[in-house]
Amino acid sequence: MTMPAATAGQLDPGPSANPFAGIDFPELERSLRRPRTLISVLLSGLVSTLTLVALIPLFYVVWMLAWRGGQKLSLSLFTQLPPAPLEEGGGFGNAVVGTLLIVGLAALVAVPFGVLCGVFLAEAPPESRLAQAVRFGAKILTGFPSILAGVFAYGTMVLLTGGFSAVAGAVGLAVLMLPTIVLTAEDSIRMVPAKMREAAIGMGATPTQRIWLVSLPTAFPGILTGIMLAVARAAGETAPLLFTALFSNFWPFSGLWPHLMQPTASLAVLIYNFSSMPFENQVELAWAAALVLVLLVLTTNLAGQSLSRRQVTDR
Prior knowledge:
By secondary structure, this protein is mainly α. It has helices spanning 5-11, 25-28, 35-72, 93-123, 129-142, 146-161, 166-190, 194-202, 207-235, 239-243, 267-275, 280-314, and strands at 253-254, 257-258.
């Protein structure tokens, strides 16, 4: 059956048809005389102004931190121990090492369990009651007060072992790190394209091989971002460490072996202790320690972003 010429012309306008026919371009131009455009410009300017005003306190705190902490910053701060009251000089090298030790132990506990839990939540069927309960618990823990994490670690570690220790501090920080890692790992694994999973199944991969060789490598940037966020939060926490690791004026190592079951210094607790002292030297050390802690957290976040971008580029 032959289609009429008029109908064919309507269905196929041909290459000479103008796709912009009937559009009044002057009508689309932005003009402040139009109420809609004027309101849009005014609201955009208002939001931008309020954003800058809200950032003023943040910039002021950062400037004060860099100014007062930078004046005291020197290499000797990382090689000396905290000074006694009325003593000049000193440093917080043991607190830097203790912070890295406690946060590292907390990451060793929280990262494997968090990633495995995220894999379980991402792979579990929607009707799974256990997955729903775990997800609900993780979301509740995201708003968990840090001091309660310290009380939990105090009751489970300090009272059982009979003393404050780096391990107890790591348990308290791991409780705070776990929900962030679990939820970010689940979301990252869920964002893996279904075609990649189906391709792995089509090639005969087992569920374990599919998760280990396809899902986790693809979701690695998102998982790493969640780990960096959790580490940044744990490094700046003070309340859990007051109940668990407490503080120490000595190095947490004896030779190459760390004292994991003894009170351990940390930057957060040192800042808390020294900032309230009536001695100028201790207050200045608190400012310098706060600057070092901010730089450590910033470096950790930048390293995580760099690794995640490199992973994406390599693919």
